[in-house]
Amino acid sequence: MPxxxxxxxxxxxxxxxxxxxxxxxxxxxKTYEISKALYSVCNQKSQERLEAVExxxxxxxxxxxxxxxEAEWLGEIIRxxxxxxxxxxxxxxxxxxxxxxxx
Length: 103
Hints:
This protein is an all-alpha fold. About 75% of the residues lie in helices and about 0% in strands. The longest helix is centred in the first third of the chain and has 19 residues, at about 1-20.
């Protein structure tokens, strides 16, 4: 019986560790700034401003202000918005920002 309890406890703790690993890791200040702009664009469903943010992502990547990984995350959000999935893009952008709280 004690072994079952121990096994259950270990499985519970491992599950908790897996769940706590979800979300975005710490991002650069520039990525956070771009995320705020992208959130605003998605909220307004503005195709024109979406292009401007995409250019900002590219120039920030070229200037090494953001990482390739961060550019990929932001690029995926841009793709969602371009496909008309504005709400999903809005949620993802908000998630990036929320995951930075307390870091």
